[in-house]
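Narrative of activities, Objective 1.

The group set out to show that a structural description can be obtained from nothing but a protein's sequence at a throughput compatible with the screening campaign. Below is one input-output pair from the validation batch, recorded exactly as produced.
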Amino acid sequence: MKHLKSSLVMLAAFTVITGIVYPLLVTGVARLVFPEKAGGSLIVKGGTVRGSELIGQPFSAPGYFWGRPSATVPFAFNAAASAGSNYGPRHPALHELVRQRMMELKAGDPENTRPVPVDLVTASGSGLDPHISVAAALYQVSRVARHRQVSRESIEALVGQYTEGRQLGFLGEPRVNVLMLNLALDERSTLPEEN
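Output recorded for this entry:
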């Protein structure tokens, strides 16, 4: 009985420490030291939250850069259901998804003969990736420039401006945050009204 009582006391103590005190302490310190990041790295424009730097957004209009596909359900970029598709490289469903996505890209820019970057047709492991490769951004420049009726060079310069380098100078690859790039596009040019 003595061992049972001490075990229950330890269980209760560690439950309070690790389940309540520690999370509150870490959250409190994060909010003090990194308030923007602890709040979700939200992007606010004109008093309106436009999204987060950390979670992708679905863009499908031809005058915007498109991000990586999302495999989350029941809708794309659902942060509550972060997951990849779990399809292996030989799975027929993955081949069909890639084929459909390539057709959508070609339909959006039929004159583009460049090879399609893999990150435009495959979802990331989380299904929430807000970034695309520099190659994926450059692949879309002609379509975006044509629909915005601006020069290709100005769009390429904007991609260069919003290209993030490797983390710590050596981790990962250079990348472009799609939401940040599209918000910058909206600030610099407007989409012509469609008739």
